[in-house]
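Tokens in:
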């Protein structure tokens, strides 16, 4: 009898010890707001862990958010200041280095956001260990700041920005990142700063002005997808890093694409590479 009682107490203790770790209270929160004469919007998104998706909203919608989260670990963020025309969305919770916090068979936490397509946006995305699918096509972009940690990112601008964008800034940690059709953002300035990772930056798209890009890569490989019909100039600073210069002619300290002088639009790249590599893929019809 004593042995059975001892075993039962030990088993109960193990269950009690395990239950706080296994306890998860999942909630789904949906929030939205219609437009009411806003002329501009600043959007701050903070999201540390999970699946993240962003796209354009239907006409007349200022924003729509659907959030699936563990309320024992995270607190939803959703605030709008009509005077400042500032929108804050996301979650507050564990640090950027956390895991997805799911058990086998459970869906990942997720955040889906849609934003107004025809209002000038200053977009600030601060993401952590997040798997992202972001399409900024159809949005009117004034500026974009995209910061991500140890993550996987598929970012694209599938349709041209109808407005003029001042800056598109990307900061990535130990990340796999693909940014497609950056030219469609129509930004005067693009910057990328990345640590360890595999990165593709595609500059195809319909930009209307000369574009400058400042790219810094450390301990990683960056692949540049460049349109053949653009005049591209590259200023390169590298240390123990390779550069695939096919399609360029070097004059002085600058590499120029073939037909640079006759091109109707131009892209200037300042590249700083350390212990990595810079590959180039040309896209579009040849000259």
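Residues out:
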């Amino acid at each position: 009898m004593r042995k059975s009682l001892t075993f039962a107490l030990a088993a109960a203790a193990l269950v009690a010890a395990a239950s706080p770790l296994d306890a998860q209270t999942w909630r789904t929160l949906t929030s939205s707001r219609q437009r009411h004469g806003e002329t501009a919007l600043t959007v701050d998104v903070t999201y540390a862990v999970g699946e993240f998706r962003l796209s354009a909203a239907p006409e007349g919608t200022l924003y729509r958010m659907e959030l699936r989260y563990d309320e024992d670990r995270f607190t939803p963020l959703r605030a709008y200041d009509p005077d400042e025309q500032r929108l804050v969305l996301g979650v507050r919770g564990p640090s950027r280095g956390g895991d997805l916090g799911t058990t086998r068979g459970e869906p990942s936490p997720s955040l889906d956001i849609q934003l107004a397509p025809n209002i000038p946006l200053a977009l600030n995305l601060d993401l952590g260990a997040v798997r992202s699918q972001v399409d900024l096509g159809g949005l009117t972009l004034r500026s974009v700041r995209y910061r991500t940690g140890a993550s996987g990112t598929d970012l694209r601008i599938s349709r041209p920005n109808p407005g003029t964008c001042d800056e598109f800034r990307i900061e990535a940690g130990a990340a796999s990142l693909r940014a497609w059709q950056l030219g469609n953002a129509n930004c005067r300035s693009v910057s990328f700063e990345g640590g360890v990772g595999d990165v593709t930056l595609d500059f195809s798209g319909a930009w209307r002005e000369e574009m400058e890009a400042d790219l810094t890569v450390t301990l990683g490989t960056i692949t540049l997808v460049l349109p053949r019909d653009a005049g591209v100039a590259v200023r390169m600073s590298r240390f123990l890093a390779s550069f695939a210069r096919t399609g360029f002619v070097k004059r002085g300290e600058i590499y120029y694409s073939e037909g640079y002088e006759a091109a109707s639009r131009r892209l200037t790249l300042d590249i700083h590479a350390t212990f990595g590599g810079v590959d180039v893929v040309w896209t579009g019809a040849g000259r």
